[in-house]
Write a structure and sequence with these properties.
single chain; alpha/beta; eight-stranded parallel barrel; 16% strand
């Protein structure tokens, strides 16, 4: 396993919706890390490849300077070229075993899993951690159906690698996930949609420590 579970306690996932420009996005990322996010995932769905690569290189350098783990969403090529710590893929993206083969043994592979079967297959294919959700209804992915607490518990019990919950998590509901065996929480708007990003991250990190 290439990532320490404690680095996943608060996992920040970027979204440009709350940043006026790239400079603001990077200020938000830095604030999130200073508030306690041990891992940050750069998620860009609408940039062309050149712009994404340039941003990913800057992102990776920032995370390295701040001591955070840098994860690129979906793109193995961008992660490799930017020198990021790893990549996160969904069930509809490149298969986890292929991702591991392309990244090699030392980088981090994260995989979205919604069932114990998907979780076990991802672990067998070389995943270092799993993301499971949606934990709650979320505006970030309106078509993502929430998974039950029983499913979250079954996913964490099915594997030996750490699992983070994702989807609609906020300071108001995070502790509803207590006792399910989760390593932490992956948060989008609960961090980046807040007026004080650093303070929001600090509060979420403390709450996630109670999981």
């Amino acid at each position: 396993m290439n990532i320490q579970p404690e680095r996943l306690r608060l996992y920040a996932v970027t979204d440009r919706a709350w940043a006026s420009d790239e400079a603001e996005l990077f200020r938000q990322i830095e604030a999130a890390v200073r508030g306690g996010a041990g891992t940050v995932q750069l998620r860009e769905k609408h940039l062309d490849r050149g712009a994404f690569l340039e941003e990913a290189r800057r992102f990776t350098a920032l995370c390295r300077r701040l001591g955070a783990v840098s994860i690129i969403n979906d793109s193995v090529e961008i992660a490799l070229e930017a020198g990021a710590d790893g990549v996160h893929v969904g069930q509809e993206d490149l298969e986890a075993g292929r991702v591991r083969a392309l990244l090699g043994p030392d980088r981090i592979v994260g995989v979205s899993a919604h069932t114990p079967g998907e979780a076990r297959r991802a672990q067998a294919a070389g995943a270092d951690y799993l993301g499971c959700g949606a934990a709650f209804a979320t505006g970030t992915k309106p078509d993502a159906r929430p998974v039950s607490r029983e499913t979250l518990r079954a996913v964490t019990a099915a594997v030996d690698i750490p699992v983070v919950a994702i989807g609609g998590i906020s300071r108001e509901n995070l502790l509803e996930l207590k006792g399910l065996g989760l390593a932490g929480a992956a948060v989008v708007s609960g961090i980046f949609g807040q007026r004080d990003v650093e303070a929001a991250a600090r509060e979420l990190k403390a709450l996630a420590g109670e999981l």
